Amino acid sequence: MDATRITISTPEDQDALLALYPRAFPEEELTGLVAALLSHPDVLSLTAWTGLSIAGHAALTRCSVTESDARVALLGPLCVAPEAQRQGLGRALIEEAAHQLEAEGVSAMLVLGDPDYYALCGFDQVSPVEPPYPLKPEWRDAWRMRTLSPQAPERGTLQVPAPWEDPALWS
Ligand SMILES: CC(C)(COP(=O)(O)OP(=O)(O)OC[C@H]1O[C@@H](n2cnc3c(N)ncnc32)[C@H](O)[C@@H]1OP(=O)(O)O)[C@@H](O)C(=O)NCCC(=O)NCCS
After folding, report:
1. DSSP secondary-structure letter at 39?
2. pLDDT-based confidence at 1, cuts 50/70/90?
3. Cβ atoms of 170 and 140 closer than 8 Å
4. If you compute the radius of gyration of the chain from its CA atoms, what whole number of angstroms results?
5. 20 to 30 A Cα–Cα from 72, which one of 32, 103, 107, 164?
């Protein structure tokens, strides 16, 4: 396999990143959300490369939590190109995000996604922080938290910026 590396996304990456999502998630329309996140000041955007090709992406939105001073980040979306999946890129993106966010004082990452996958990537706790909109009952196990520091919140509700203020993204 070509050498892999992860960089902070630049505006030059945008077209390739937007083109990844319909390939990784053919049944979901995420382009509008991803475009909004790429230009949002509170978002850490990471690009994964295999050789000279963009092969994966993670967006992490820095958020606050009610009833807590803790700073947290919402992971999503995360995607890896079909031909590059199951080679460790998704996990590498999550680990790089955890490393960078912990260094800036973010205490936990939250995610709404495949519980089997995210449990393997350290999201081993059903989140004590409530999501910003009600979830379908069958999605409760998909709402998870990965603690990065002892300051991680123990209660409260996630407060999200504009790109995530759409109940349809949560139900
Ligand atoms: C889900 C996704 C981000 C994972 O990225 P990836 O680079 O393929 O995954 P990794 O190689 O880092 O896998 C890490 C571990 O998770 C496992 N894994 C990978 N995809 C998995 C999945 N969909 N379900 C359960 N486990 C999975 C791997 O086998 C690996 O386990 P191991 O360390 O024991 O070998 C990527 O496959 C993707 O974009 N898929 C399309 C969209 C999708 O299905 N999303 C669902 C999650 S919201």
Report:
1. T
2. low
3. no
4. 15
5. 32
Residue 77 CA, closest ligand 1 atom number: 48
Question: Cα(151) to centroid of ligand 1, in Å?
Answer: 28
Q: Domain locations in the chain? A: 4-169
Residue 144 has pLDDT above 90, yes or no: yes
Contact 47, 57 (CB under 8 A): yes
Task: Please tell me the predicted confidence (pLDDT) of residue 88.
Answer: 96
**Ligand 1, CB within 6 Å, residue ranges:** 24-25, 78-80, 85-91, 113-114, 116-117, 120
To the nearest whole number, what is the mean pLDDT of the chain? 96
Beta-strand relationship, 158-159 and 143-147 = unpaired
Cis preceding-peptide flag for 77 (omega within 30 of 0): yes
Angle at 7 between CA 101 and CA 27, to 5 degrees: 85
Atom of ligand 1 nearest to the CA of 113: 48
CATH number, span 4-169: 3.40.630.30
**What's the 127 CA to ligand 1 centre distance in angstroms?**
20
